[in-house]
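**User:** Once you have settled down, spend some time on the protein underneath, comparing sequence with C-alpha cells, and judge whether sequence predicts the C-alpha cells.
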Amino acid sequence: MSHAEAPAPAFPGANVPTPPPERGPWLLAGTLALLGSGVLVAVLLLGGGGGSSAHASAPPPVPVIATTPSASPAAAASVLARAGAAPTDTSTRARRRRAARRRHAPAGTVAGPSGRRQQLDAARFVGQTQTHIPLGWMEGFYPIYGIAQRTFGVNWLLIASIHRQESAFSTAPDTYTGLNFAGCCGGPMQMNVTNRPVPTWRRVSGSFRYGRRPSSYDHRTARHPSIYDDFDSIMAGAHLLSAEGASYALDASGWVAAYDYYGHDTTGVAYADQVLARAIGWSQHGFCINCGIDTRLVEAVHAAYGAPVEAALVKARAASVR
C-alpha cells in the first residue's frame, strides 16, 4: 500500500480515529529540516560536540494502575461472556448469537494451532521472555507504543507485553525476515499472513495510517505497510487488540483480547495469563524490561480469568467426543 491509498477497513467496534492528513506534516517537516540544518551549522561553528542517544526517550505514562484480579463468580462470568467460552443461556436464539459472534470475530494470530505447535509455542514464549534486552534497544519503541496507545485507546503496557511475548521486543532471530517456525506469522508482533479467508495481517496492515509515524526509529522499511516495520507492525497489533475489546483497563477485556490474539486453546489461556499478568505488574511497579513475571500475579490472573475459560474448553472437548 502506498501512502496515497486508503487504509484497510477497520474492524467493527475497534477504537479507530480518522487518519491524519499527510500534506501538512510533509510541508512542516521540510521547514523544520531547513531550520534544523541552520541550527546544526551553528552548533558546529560554536564547537558543540556533545552527542546523545538517537532514541533518548522515556516510556510513555501509564494510563491506569491495575489492581490484581480476584477469582469470583462475577469475574468468571465477565470473561466467559466476553470470550464466548461457556454459555449459560442454551436457548436456540442464544446459540445463534454466539455462532454469529464467532464467525465475525477477528481471527487469532495463530488461528487454531496443532497440539505440537502449541507445545513449541509454549517453549518459545518461555525462551523469549528470558532474553536480556538492552535499554538502548528499547528506547526506540517508546514513541511507537505511545502513538499506538493514543491512536487505538489500548493500554501500551498490554501492547508491549504482547511484543515481549511474541518476539522478545523484536530480538527474536526471525523478527525481520521470513516467517516463524510454524510458517504462519512474522514481524515484531507475529501477525498471521496465512489464515483464511482474509489473513489477519491483511485486515490490519493499513493501521499505520491512523497515527503519525515517528520521524526516526530502527528497522524502518522503505515501503509501507510492511510486517517487518516496527511502527507498521505495532500499530496493526494495537488495532487488533482494540477490535478484540482491549482498552486502558487491564482486566477481563484485556485478558480476552490477548486470548483472541493467540487463539482459543489451552496454550492461548496460558498466553493470555502471562501477557496480562506482565502488563499488570508493570502498571503496579513500573516498566521493567528484563524483570520476570510475578508468578503470584500469573496465578491470580489465571484463577480469575484463565481457569473458567480453560474449564469451558475442557468441557467442550469432552462433549465433542461423546
The chain has one domain: 23-320. The two ends are 49 Å apart (CA to CA). Residues 80 and 86 are 6 Å apart (CA to CA).
